[in-house]
């Protein structure tokens, strides 16, 4: 059983050999990863069900298909992404030169997965890392043991063992892994751990991407079809039993909207899960007894009124889809990200009040607005910040590969998905290939200096409004 | 005091003052006026700090800065506008775009070697992106720092863009505060401390560090021109440039000619006695002077080697046949000492470079396209200039930044704006097309799973203006052709038709 440093050294030696650089190699590995997912769908679904009681539908939609889509997208676009970028502005001085931006691999990267979407949160960054030509160490979450084992077994079978390795273990193993030098660290998880990762990366000057979380607010305001809004809200909130980093955490609406919303929510939940969600095959469970306890504590301490749900069962870590009203800013449910099937509704009197409230908190990973009124959507957009934004729906903005997925402030730094992942795991190297000609013009820049030369240089290099770029000195 | 400056900047930012585009443009134009009005004073400060010649100041600090400001003013509306992204069939009727937004209050820590350019160029991007910015110039270039502290508040909004001066303890106090981004230019030792301090607040950082930038000279090259360009880049600002060619790699057969080429050029540039040339600079302070002199210990200079501690003067110096383990080759020189290390061929050179930390810049002089291609493909570095030095810095459409130990992040031109912005992914849907969305809701069954899979697999379409125009034009042309074909067929058929 190789030690951590042996594995890292092996990968580094492979990277140095340059074998991951050619397009063909990257394409083959991506293709193999595709086979891994396609050929083992049932095993994956079983593992996810074992770990998270994940309904088959959710496994397919939010773990398998999203990974496959990202793979298709990467394979289709790899050649384009790898091309040096020539279409950049030049100016008088560099007209005769070749100027371009190369995308180059970074080296050996570390990808730390999370437990709520244990497959895609580790494989999507891997797709990007492979596409960008790196070697990668995967550290799946130890909380989802079945998925962790499956990945440890399958990855070496399908992908090059000299380039990609899975290292399993708990908190202590991760700590010791972080003592090593990596060329990029990609972490999905909590703020507390994120801090220690950044502190571990600093002595090595390793760049880091952090996909964290936060309390993603959801406005329901103004003129809106409350039935449709309730459907989309319920879907995005209770998907994966609320354990999504971009789940709408809480709702902000007026008392009037709330009164219309509650019956719509009740009806939707009944349609989705039947009269007893605990018996529905489409309802998931909380990941561990510890997380179940955390949620129950929050619920117990809350001063809000439970109007829907509230039932729970410790044996199978079940919590019913629960909605509370009359929740204040100081409530136990409003102090940390909920990450469970509990939806507090905060009543506001005006949009401004809601916006002020949001701006008093940390910047969230996602922000949602349900409204038919463009002015409402625009006002919220212009006066708040968040990792991403979705109007009139929840979560789905992360399924569009053209949009970067990432946080800001306490919700994270950096982004990925599609081309953004490729850029995250690449170094953008600015290259200028100067021509040998025009040396007579170069002479203007050499000492001994003179006012005369400086005058000409200034004229030649000052940015002209219609030119594409500026040059500061010849 | 530092805490208050940051607090005031945050309050000013939260009040929304820095966001309107007109305000940002007005501040940038004001910054432009400051540079134009106060050129003389800036040049004097630089002369006192680092003995910068009156021509080097506009050339290396101010022209670049002015160009950045003009570019930002001219392109701001474009940069700040929403950037549409491709959509698929599921999102065909929705708006999907990336909205650049200000981050908040950023910290810019400048460096002493180009105290105006390296402190104000990031500031241009920070202002353009709509942020507030606390500016901390380097205390080592003290005259420039005091001048900046006196001038900036007279031209820019005092609360949004405060200047905080001071040494290590003031910087540490600043770093204890929470910022939304920290931009640091300097050395990697302090870079690590900056990153560590930022880690506590989960603050992203841009680090513009340094390293030993190698300069490979191929044997079949016009040495006269190559040496002139290298000499220029190496000895400008007395070698105190983060992207100066740190050392030369070449084959033994051309080493002497390289030395001669440099010697000749030095005579042309600075005359027989560089000490008396107005165009040759000095070392920033005694500590760095001593550091450089120590590096030279035990080696005989082939060119130069003279020094004068009282003036912090070190002559442009070249050392031949430097062994890889010499002190000169262990740390970034950042001074007017140019070691030449011999390598047997391009393979040896590439191997030599790759054994070391990733540099900020890499230079290769060659007329052989294959050599250039190999150098580019088999090494990495922050940036590259081929057949010249430093110049990639000057084109602001190229991203400027390091990789690995030479730094993280990039800037210049639009890249600065992007570095100081949050790129917020926005999807604005309608509540229509609900029938399509029904497949995703529980209760679930096999058919729904199948349908959802199909829906998710739709390809992405580019709805940009260009594609739109192309699509419409192509459709019109196709329709036109179809009509023409139909008419022809009818006419042809009409010949044999007796229905009329």
Q: How would you characterize the overall build of this protein?
A:
The complex is a heterodimer of chains A (474) and B (500). Chain A has 474 residues and is an alpha/beta fold. Helices cover 42% and strands 16% of the residues of chain A. Chain A has helices at 4-17, 23-39, 41-52, 56-82, 120-131, 145-158, 171-177, 191-201, 226-238, 255-273, 289-301, 351-360, 374-383, 418-424, 439-442, 451-461; strands at residues 98-105, 108-112, 135-139, 164-166, 184-188, 208-211, 217-220, 250-253, 305-308, 312-313, 318-319, 322-325, 342-347, 366-370, 388-391, 412-413, 426-433. Chain A has a 7-stranded mixed β-sheet, with helices on both faces. In chain A, strands 4-3-2-5-6-16 form a 6-stranded mixed β-sheet, sandwiched between helices. A two-stranded antiparallel sheet of chain A has the order 1-17. The radius of gyration of chain A is 26 Å and the shape is globular. The model of chain A is unreliable at 466-474 (pLDDT under 50). Chain B has 500 residues and is of the alpha/beta class. Chain B is built from 17 helices and 16 strands. In chain B, the strands form 4 sheets. A 6-stranded parallel β-sheet of chain B has the order 11-12-8-7-13-14, sandwiched between helices. A 5-stranded mixed β-sheet of chain B has the order 4-3-5-6-15, with helices on both faces. A 3-stranded antiparallel β-sheet of chain B has the order 1-2-16. In chain B, helix 4 (56-80) packs parallel to helix 5 (117-128) and helix 9 packs across helix 10. Classes of the chains: A alpha/beta (474), B alpha/beta (500). The interface between A and B is large, with 120 and 114 residues. Strand 17 (426-433) of chain A pairs parallel with strand 14 of chain B.
Distance between the termini of chain B: 99 Å
Strand order of the largest sheet of chain B: 11-12-8-7-13-14
Please state the CA-atom Rg of chain B, rounded to the nearest Å.
29 Å
User: In this structure, how is the largest beta sheet of chain A organized?
Assistant: 7 strands, mixed
Percent in helix of chain A: 40-55%
């Amino acid at each position: 059983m190789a030690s951590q440093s042996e594995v890292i050294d092996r990968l580094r030696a492979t990277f140095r050999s340059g074998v991951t650089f050619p397009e063909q190699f990257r394409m083959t590995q991506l293709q193999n990863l595709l086979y891994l997912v396609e050929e083992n769908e049932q095993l994956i679904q079983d593992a996810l069900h074992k770990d998270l009681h994940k309904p088959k539908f959710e496994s397919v939609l939010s773990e398998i298909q999203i990974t496959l889509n990202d793979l298709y997208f990467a394979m289709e676009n790899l050649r384009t992404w790898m091309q040096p970028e020539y279409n950049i502005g030049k100016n008088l001085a560099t007209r005769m030169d070749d100027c371009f931006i190369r995308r180059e691999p970074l080296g050996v990267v570390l990808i730390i997965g999370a437990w709520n979407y244990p497959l895609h949160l580790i494989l999507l960054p891997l797709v990007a890392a492979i596409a960008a030509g790196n070697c990668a160490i995967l550290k799946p979450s130890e909380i989802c043991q079945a998925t962790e084992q499956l990945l440890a077994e399958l990855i070496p079978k399908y992908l090059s063992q000299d380039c990609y390795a899975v290292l399993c273990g708990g908190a202590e193993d991760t700590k010791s892994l972080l003592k090593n030098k990596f060329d990029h660290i990609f972490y999905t998880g909590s703020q507390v751990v994120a801090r220690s990762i950044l502190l571990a990366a600093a002595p090595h000057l390793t760049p880091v991407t952090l996909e964290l979380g936060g309390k993603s607010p959801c406005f329901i305001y103004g003129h809106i079809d409350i039935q449709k809004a309730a459907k989309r809200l319920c879907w995005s909130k209770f998907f994966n039993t609320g354990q999504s980093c971009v789940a709408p955490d809480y709702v902000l609406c007026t008392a009037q909207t709330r009164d219309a919303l509650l019956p719509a929510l009740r009806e939707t939940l009944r349609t989705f899960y039947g009269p007893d969600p605990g018996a529905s095959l489409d309802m998931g469970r909380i990941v561990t007894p510890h997380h179940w306890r955390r949620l129950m504590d929050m619920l117990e301490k809350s001063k809000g009124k439970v109007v829907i749900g509230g039932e729970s069962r410790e044996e199978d870590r079940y919590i019913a889809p629960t909605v509370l009203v009359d929740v204040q800013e100081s409530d136990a449910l409003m102090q940390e990200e909920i990450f469970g099937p509990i939806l507090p509704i905060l009543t506001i009197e005006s949009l401004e009040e809601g916006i002020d409230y949001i701006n008093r908190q940390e910047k969230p990973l996602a922000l949602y607005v349900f409204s038919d009124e463009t002015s409402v959507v625009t006002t919220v957009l212009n006066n708040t910040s968040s990792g991403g934004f979705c109007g009139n729906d929840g979560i789905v903005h992360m399924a569009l590969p053209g949009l970067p997925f990432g946080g800001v402030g306490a919700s994270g730094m950096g982004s990925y998905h599609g081309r953004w992942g490729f850029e995250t795991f690449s170094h953008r190297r600015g290259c200028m290939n100067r021509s040998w000609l025009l040396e007579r013009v170069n002479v203007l820049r050499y000492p001994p200096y003179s006012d005369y030369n400086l005058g000409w240089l200034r004229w030649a290099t000052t940015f002209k409004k219609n030119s594409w770029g500026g040059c500061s000195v010849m | 005091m530092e805490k208050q400056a940051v607090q005031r900047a945050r309050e000013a930012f939260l009040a929304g003052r820095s966001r309107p585009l007109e305000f940002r443009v007005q501040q940038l134009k004001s910054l432009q006026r400051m540079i134009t009005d106060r050129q003389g004073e800036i040049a004097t400060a630089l002369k006192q700090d680092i003995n910068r010649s009156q021509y080097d100041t506009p050339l290396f600090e101010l022209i670049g800065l002015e160009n950045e400001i003009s570019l930002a003013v001219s392109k701001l509306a474009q940069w700040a506008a929403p950037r549409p992204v491709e959509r698929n069939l599921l999102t065909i009727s929705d708006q999907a775009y990336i909205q650049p937004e200000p981050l908040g209050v950023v910290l810019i820590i400048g460096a002493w070697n180009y105290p105006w350019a390296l402190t104000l160029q990031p500031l241009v991007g920070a202002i353009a992106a709509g942020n507030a910015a606390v500016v901390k110039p380097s205390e080592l270039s003290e005259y420039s720092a005091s001048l900046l502290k006196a001038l900036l508040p007279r031209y820019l909004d005092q609360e949004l863009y405060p200047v905080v001066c001071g040494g290590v303890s003031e910087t540490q106090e600043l770093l204890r505060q929470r910022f939304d981004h920290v931009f640091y230019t300097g050395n990697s030792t302090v870079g690590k401390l900056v990153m560590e301090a930022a880690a506590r607040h989960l603050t992203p950082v841009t680090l513009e560090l340094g390293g030993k930038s190698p300069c490979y000279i191929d044997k079949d090259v016009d040495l006269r021109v190559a040496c002139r360009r290298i000499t220029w880049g190496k000895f400008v600002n007395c070698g105190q440039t983060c992207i100066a060619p740190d050392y030369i790699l070449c084959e033994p057969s051309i080493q002497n000619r390289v030395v001669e080429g440099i010697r000749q050029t030095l005579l042309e540039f600075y005359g027989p006695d560089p000490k008396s040339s107005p165009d040759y600079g000095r070392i920033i302070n005694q500590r760095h002077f001593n550091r450089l002199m120590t590096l030279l210990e035990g080696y005989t200079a082939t060119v130069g080697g003279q020094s004068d501690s009282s003036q912090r003067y070190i002559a442009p110096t070249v050392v031949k046949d430097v062994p890889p383990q010499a002190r000169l080759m262990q740390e970034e020189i950042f001074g007017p000492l140019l070691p030449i290390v011999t390598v047997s061929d391009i393979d040896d050179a590439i191997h030599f470079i790759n054994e070391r930390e990733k540099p900020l810049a890499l230079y290769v002089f060659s007329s052989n396209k294959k050599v250039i291609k190999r150098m580019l493909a088999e090494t990495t570095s922050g940036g590259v200039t081929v057949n010249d030095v430093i110049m990639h810095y000057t084109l602001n459409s190229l991203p400027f930044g390091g990789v690995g130990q030479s730094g993280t992040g990039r800037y210049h031109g639009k890249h600065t704006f992007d570095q100081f912005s949050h790129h917020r992914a926005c999807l604005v849907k309608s509540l229509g097309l609900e029938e399509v969305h029904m497949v995703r809701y529980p209760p679930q069954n096999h058919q729904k799973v199948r349908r959802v899979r199909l829906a998710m697999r739709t390809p992405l379409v580019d709805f940009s203006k260009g594609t739109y125009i192309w699509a419409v034009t192509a459709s019109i042309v196709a329709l036109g052709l179809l009509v023409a074909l139909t008419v022809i067929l009818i006419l042809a058929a009409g010949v044999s038709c007796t229905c009329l």
